Each structure stands twice: as C-alpha cells, then as structure tokens.
TrEMBL record:
The keyword Phosphoprotein does not apply. InterPro entries: EmrE-like, Nuc_sug_transpt. The chain crosses the membrane at residues 47-72, 84-105, 140-156, 176-193, 205-224, 244-263, 270-290, 296-312. Keywords: Membrane, Transmembrane, Transmembrane helix. This is Uncharacterized protein STP11. GO terms for cellular component: Golgi membrane. One of its GO terms (molecular function) is pyrimidine nucleotide-sugar transmembrane transporter activity.
Length: 331
C-alpha cells in the first residue's frame, strides 16, 4: 500500500513539477518590464543544485559534520582533478542545453516546446547505440520511427496562437524549434557520456554530483561573464529577477532531485505516463490561459510522439537498464 502510494505520489509530483516549470519559464520570458538575463538564471540554478548536493552530503556521508564535509570535498574534488576534468564536457553541454531551453521558450509556446523536446529520446537512443554499443529491440526502433514522424508533423504545422510580444512570426518559431533540437542533441549526448563515465567507476552519487556541480558553476560563471558581461555591468547580475524567476530557478534546480526520487520509487511505465500527462496538462492550461489553439494536425503529431515515448519506455520483455534511465531522463 505504502509503495503504491509512493509510486503514484511521485508520478503526480513529476507531472506537476515538469508542467509548472515549462509554463512558468515560458511566462517569465514573456512578461513586461525589465527582462532577466537567462545565462544568470542558469548560473543561479547550478549554484542552487550544488548547494542541495552539499546539504545531502552533509546529512548523509558526512553525518552532520561540517569538518567531515570539508574533508570529503578536499579529497573528492580538489584531490581528484582528473576525475573532475572528465565531467567538464557534460557540464558544458548541460549549460548549453539549459541556455537553449530558455531561448526556445522565448520563441515558442510551452506545448510545441514540450512536444518537440521529446526528440531527446531519439538522440539518447542514437548515442546509446554508437557510444555504449547498446542494442535496441524492434519495439524501440518502431517507436523511434513514429517519434520522428510525429515531430516532423508538429514542426511543419503552424498552430494558431498568440506569439511572443517580443518575438513574432514564422522565423521566430523556426529559431525556437532549432534551439529545442540543439537542446535535445546536447541532452542525449551528455546523458550517455555521463553514464559511460559512471559505469567506469563506483563513486557515490552525491559525490559525483558535487564534482559535476563545481565544474558546472565554474564554467557557468565564466561563460556568463564572457557572453553578457556588458549587460551585467550595466544592470547587475540579478537585474529583472522577481519572485517568479526565483520559482523557475528553484523548480529547475530541484528537477534533478525529483527524477532521482522517481527512479527510486517508480518505473518506466509511470515515467512514460508522466511525460504524456505533462504534455496534455501543458496544452490544456495554455488553451485556457494563453489562447493556444492547436490544430488537428498538431494534435495528431503530438499523439504520435506521446505514444512513441510511452512504448519506448516500456520494453516488452525486461526492465530497462540504468543506462536507459540515465540517458532518457537527464536534464
């Protein structure tokens, strides 16, 4: 009974978190007034994630001792530069991915974004086969073909909706779709690359997250000041921040912890349902609040994508490996 409650509770939590994050991120990029710099939001998110990892280490492996926590950081981060350097590539790719997602939601409604972002299943599968030598069964290959067909239909359709006040027109939508495609590619590669690293060592999960977090924060601030140093000098690092922006940053930072919770208590069937429910919920909310009007062709393509995602995540004969879970649910 308790296990069932945890599974369904984790499903509801994932749907709510994923739906709220995309819709609020989209709204935060369309509101009037001073606009925040998206690269600083990504940096803030990385700092928040790293802080959570420190807290989990303090409460877990360090047994509440700050001295032990400092010792572990010196040993596992400063004392293992080669291990940390291995994570530089996926850390950089995740930074690029998150910046692309902010850019995409500046040009697309939440529903087309969520539907198209399912391309990460296709890219994860491709890199799993090429980098890890994983074999896909007939069911998954068919699912990938259906997924590609659905994404093609969605991208070629032009649903009637109110575009951004700041960015409008077909060219803007095209840029948004290109950004989502780039995010899907970086998500697939970085997830599989990181899994390949994890398979070669037995480092504690939170230690590994701290190693990557330190790298991500360092690269994030470096890239931010190289790209937006003039804007930051003019208006400050936190210009345009509001309660809404901090909610978006917090939701994005805690998303990884939510996925970890799902992986512990749920399975890929529930995750497949969660992805479909989240897309449907986003579509309904946008129709009510943001005048999003999907065409029948758009709905058909979306249905194909959700069906493909569901069947890809529910193997017919055996449970997916950890590789599958990591590759398909990295964010």
């Amino acid at each position: 009974m308790e296990s069932s409650l945890l599974r369904h509770g984790s499903l509801a939590l994932l749907v709510a978190q994923d739906t709220a994050l995309v819709l609020l991120m989209r709204y935060s990029r369309q509101r009037s007034g001073s606009m925040y710099i998206s690269s600083t939001a990504v940096c803030s998110m990385e700092v928040m994630k790293l802080s959570v990892c420190f807290l989990m280490l303090l409460c877990g492996e360090a047994h509440g001792s700050f001295g032990m926590l400092v010792f572990m950081i010196r040993k596992e981060v400063l004392g293992r530069p080669k291990e940390v350097a291995k994570l530089a590539l996926p850390a950089l790719l995740y930074l690029i991915q998150n910046n692309l997602l902010y850019f995409a939601l500046s040009h697309l409604q939440a529903t087309p974004y969520k539907v198209t972002y399912n391309l990460k299943i296709l890219t994860s599968a491709f890199f799993s086969v090429t980098l890890l030598g994983q074999r896909l069964g007939r069911r998954r290959w068919i699912s990938l073909v259906v997924l590609f067909l659905g994404v093609t239909i969605v991208q070629t359709d032009n649903p009637k909706n109110e575009l951004s006040r700041h960015h409008s027109g077909l060219g803007s939508q095209t840029l948004g779709f290109v950004a989502v495609g780039g995010a899907a590619i970086t998500s697939g590669f970085s997830g599989v690359y990181q899994q390949r690293i994890l398979q070669s060592c037995k480092t504690d999960m939170w230690i590994r997250n701290v190693q990557m977090g330190v790298t991500s924060v360092t690269l994030g601030f470096l890239c931010t000041f190289l790209k937006d140093r003039q804007a930051i000098a003019d208006g400050g690092f936190f210009q345009g921040y509001s309660r809404l922006v901090w909610v978006v940053v917090s939701l994005q930072a805690l998303g990884g912890l939510n996925v970890a919770f799902i992986l512990k208590y749920a399975d890929n069937i529930l995750k497949g349902f969660a992805a479909a429910f989240s897309t449907i919920a986003s579509c309904i909310i946008e129709m009510v609040l943001f005048q999003f009007r999907p065409s029948p062709l758009f709905l058909f393509g979306s249905a194909l994508i959700n069906i493909a995602a569901y069947f890809y995540n529910t193997p017919a004969t055996k449970r997916p490996t950890k590789c599958d879970a990591s590759a398909l649910h990295s964010v």
